[in-house]
Design brief:
Shape of chain B: globular
Strand content of chain A: over 45%
Shape of chain A: globular
Number of strands of chain A: 11
Order of helices and strands of chain A: EEEEEEEEEEE
Structural class of chain A: mainly beta
Number of helices of chain B: 0
Distance between the termini of chain B: 37 Å
Distance between the termini of chain A: 41 Å
Strand content of chain B: 35-45%
Number of strands of chain B: 10
Helix content of chain B: under 10%
Radius of gyration of chain B: 14 Å
Order of helices and strands of chain B: EEEEEEEEEE
Structural class of chain B: mainly beta
Helix content of chain A: under 10%
Oligomer: heterodimer
Chain lengths: 112, 116
């Protein structure tokens, strides 16, 4: 069946550096992707989304890149801050009445 | 405005007992979802509701799990004869609509269930 996975389960970065979190998806029919951030003891929080007709979208300090050729999604965080420490999930949705499918998550640790 | 709320925040129960978890979605959100998250794991889809349509129960792991929703309001997830493997955080989310249009799910804080 469809699956969404991540290349790296953990990522440690120095404060101020840029972070890149990767995600691979297997369902070529997926047309919508979201990145969520989950802090300890809280529910996931929306960060940024992208549709399949785009290959890049920028938010505040975050950029999502979509490469449909290799079915790869990435989240870039500029000037990483201690408050960015959390688990990051990518999620995909394909057309039709199906819910989001979440990946396993990557834990980002920011070293002050 | 108010976000998605869930109760209780923590629940400890003995193996074999039934539990009910509650979710109050954001007002006006027609779609509601339940997920399970085991410690250190990703989100496992359980069930979703969309308006008055029949719910998608394809993610429920066994017939011990069931959920109800009254109209477009509160939902309850019931786990009967709980097992230790049911220990997890149960997350609820809602969204404005569920269709081929793009949407964002808003999550509640979750209910941490511990089965002893």
């Amino acid at each position: 069946g469809e699956s969404v996975g991540l290349h790296l389960p953990t990522l440690s970065v120095q404060e101020g550096d840029n972070s890149i979190i990767n995600c691979a998806y297997s369902n070529s029919a997926s047309d919508y992707f979201i990145w969520y951030k989950q802090e300890s003891g809280k529910g996931p929080q929306f960060i940024i989304d992208i549709r399949s007709n785009m290959d890049k979208r920028q938010g505040q300090r975050v950029t999502v890149l979509l490469n449909k050729t290799v079915k790869h999604l990435s989240l870039q965080i500029a000037a990483t801050q201690p408050g960015d420490s959390a688990v990051y999930f990518c999620a995909e949705k394909n057309s039709g009445n199906t819910p989001l499918v979440f990946g396993k998550g990557t834990r980002l640790s920011v070293i002050a | 405005g108010a976000g998605v709320s869930q109760s209780p925040s923590n629940k400890v129960t003995e193996k074999g007992k039934d539990v009910e978890l509650r979710c109050d979605p954001i007002s006006g959100h027609t779609a509601l979802y339940w997920y399970r998250q085991r410690l250190g794991q990703g989100l496992e889809f359980l069930i979703y509701f969309q308006g008055n349509s029949a719910p998608d129960k394809s993610g429920l792991p066994s017939d011990r799990f069931s959920a109800e929703r009254t109209g477009e309001s509160v939902s309850t997830l019931t786990i009967q004869r709980t097992q230790q493997e049911d220990s997890a955080v149960y997350l609820c989310a809602s969204s404005r609509r569920f269709s081929t249009a793009y949407y964002e799910q808003y999550f509640g804080p979750g209910t941490r269930l511990t089965v002893t």
